[in-house]
Amino acid sequence: MNPLLQPLKLGDSFINNRLIMAPMTRCRALDNHVPSPLMADYYAQRATAGLIIAEATMAMENNSAFWMEPGIYSNAQVSAWKVVTDAVHAKGGKIFLQIWHGGRACHPLLNNGVQPVSSSAIAIVHGEVHTPQGMQPYTLPRELTIKEIQEIVLGFKQAAINAKEAGFDGVEVHGANGYLIDQFLRDGTNKRTDQYGGSFENRGRFLFEILEAVCSVWGSENVGLRISPLNSYNDIIDSEPIGLYAWLASELNRFNLGYLHVMRSDFFAQQSGDVMTPIRAAYKGTLIGNMGYTPDEAFKAIDEGEVDAVAFGAYFIANPDFVERIKCGAPLNQPDSNTFYTPGSVGYTDYPFMDG
Questions:
Q1: pLDDT digits (tens, 9 = 90+) for 130-171
Q2: Where are the domains of the chain?
Q3: 196 near 124, Cβ under 8 Å?
Q4: Which of 108, 181, 234, 259 could, after both became Cys, cross-link 224 (CB 3.0–4.6 A)?
Q5: Calpha distance 313→22 (Å, rounded)
Q6: Is 233 among the residues known to form the active site?
Q7: pTM above 0.85, yes or no
């Protein structure tokens, strides 16, 4: 049997295949970061994925980095997400929610004038953020106090509670791509001299506290973590990324997570190296690989034991029936990157199925 199509024990149950739908921000939420009915259609179309990991979702108010991304902190958001999860479950699918804090990638124009926060007061220099007033440069974040760090940990815990109420099958903690958790992990952004800065152990403390809080809600087997050791997105960098993440992978064994989800490369090709081999050697749980895998490479990676499953992004955007196309070797639709973040159904729910 094709290893991509074999079931896998994940969380409290088995998933039907090892083709995971990666979390992808699509900016289709309504005002006040409420998920739209269109989002229910989008995810339900892709319910044959072994697991859907829904997009980066604001754990707390006033940490928007994308303008039209969803949240999970209000009753209206929870109710709207319940429509999404019901639609996916009606099609026999499983769906986790990725819970997230943007940190210094946020902007006051997206967050009622609130200054962004981070591990340290260091701004993103390269790139701009999309706001209601057009593209804007990033602003200087404020360094979080220890009390505020503890409040954010509690915010993640409440987000996990809300995700359970919304009917998700589990949650993924977003520790990747230069957002708040990643800002604590990396020495390029974390210049703190207290218990949250300096050593690997101190820089990992914030993540570990969040994982403990979220696992207390869901049970660790229903919690995943996404990391991106090499990705320089949002100006994130570390002086020793492979050493840091090999250490982190080993430390994560004590949490007995449902999975560890690893983005293996860099969007901007600024950093390179093999992170999958040392992480696989250190981490004893289920490992999901992500970034740039073709179906053939994913087949080989699973077959040779390099990973247990592979998460695909653009393939699932353009092919709601991606799993079925893999099963029968059908041609794949090509994604239109011009519509990745635009409102409406075009480039979202209108990609054709094999049957037209």
A1: 999 999 999 999 999 999 999 999 999 999 999 999 999 999
A2: 3-314
A3: no
A4: 259
A5: 5
A6: no
A7: yes
